[in-house]
From TrEMBL:
It holds the Pfam family adh_short_C2. Keywords: Oxidoreductase. This is Uncharacterized protein. The keyword Oxidoreductase applies. PROSITE patterns: ADH_SHORT (PS00061). The keyword NAD does not apply. InterPro entries: NAD(P)-bd_dom_sf (IPR036291), Sc_DH/Rdtase_CS (IPR020904), SDR_fam (IPR002347).
Length: 254
């Protein structure tokens, strides 16, 4: 059911975690991918993995970019189109968290950084992709979070960014129908490096979170990549504007 053979996909935040899992999965399904992140070493490793998994030995287009910078967002798009001259799938996955207290004198800088990467870069990439996706009858998958619908006091501005992203998914789904489908996967906690800049001991945090999930464990990046691939394929052809939770049952728990 999931056929991505020869589809061209730009997957942001693909040097690590969920985006990396998606890039490798898409490559194994025959897609041509553009991968993006700030860390060149990690990007090169992901590119090698993608090429090894590709049934056509496709080498990904590798783009080093920092999405807090508007010019890097635009360059990411331009390098993808310049290499492939075509776009079928845009996966807006790059994202970061933030936990500064509103009483912290510095919080507004971190707030701006989170909104820039989690919302503004998605809006810009969508804007630039529209003509290409209309032409290819393509689609967009946004990677949001359960905290878009269940507020997190600690991650308050991260929650805000993902709530904004969900409304962007729905409004763009309306605007771009029937030409381009736009959907979202909203993960619960997933074991990646996402929390590393925010908490000192991520292992203990994940062990604690494992116990609190109805499924008894947090998610794995490959489980989220599977949903991204489903939403990127004809298997989800009747879906647009959908917010799909993949969350170990997180939203069922208190
Ligand atoms: P990771 O930290 O493992 O990966 C994040 C990716 O985003 C990396 O490739 C990173 O690139 C990239 N990225 C971060 N900041 C920037 C930036 N300024 N410019 C360009 N790229 C950037 O996190 P996850 O894989 O867990 O997160 C992926 C998505 O999933 C995010 O949108 C996140 O909000 C969402 N999510 C994650 C959850 C979790 O528990 N892990 C839960 C719910 C949602 P690099 O390292 O090269 O800088």
């Amino acid at each position: 059911m999931i056929n991505l053979d020869n589809k061209v996909a730009l997957i942001t935040g693909s040097s690590d975690g969920i985006g990396k899992a998606a890039a490798v999965l898409f490559s194994s399904l025959g897609a041509k991918v553009a991968i993006v992140g700030r860390d060149q070493t990690k990007l090169d490793q992901v590119a090698a993995e993608c090429e090894a998994k590709s049934p056509h030995n496709y080498k990904p287009v590798v783009i080093k970019a920092d999405f807090t910078r508007d010019e890097d967002v635009v360059r990411t798009f331009e390098e993808t189109i310049s290499a492939y001259k075509h776009l079928d799938i845009l996966v807006n996955n790059a994202g970061l968290g933030g936990t500064k207290d509103i009483r912290d004198p510095d919080y507004i800088h971190d707030y701006d950084r989170v909104q820039q990467v989690n919302v503004r870069s998605v809006v810009r990439l969508t804007e630039l992709s529209i003509p290409h996706l209309v032409k290819s009858k393509g689609l967009i998958v946004n990677v949001s979070s359960v905290v878009a619908v269940k507020p997190s006091e600690k991650f308050w501005y991260y929650s805000m960014s993902k709530a904004a992203l969900d409304m962007f998914t729905k409004t763009m789904a309306l605007k771009l129908a029937p030409h381009v489908r736009v959907n979202s996967v909203n993960p619960g906690p997933v074991r990646t490096r996402f929390l590393s800049p925010l908490v000192p001991d991520t292992n203990t945090v994940y062990e604690d979170m494992d116990k609190r999930q109805p499924l008894g464990r947090v998610g794995d990046p490959n489980e989220i990549a599977n949903v991204i691939a489903f939403l990127s394929s004809e298997a989800s052809s009747n879906m647009t504007g959908s917010i799909v939770f993949s969350d170990s049952g997180y939203l069922l728990a208190e």
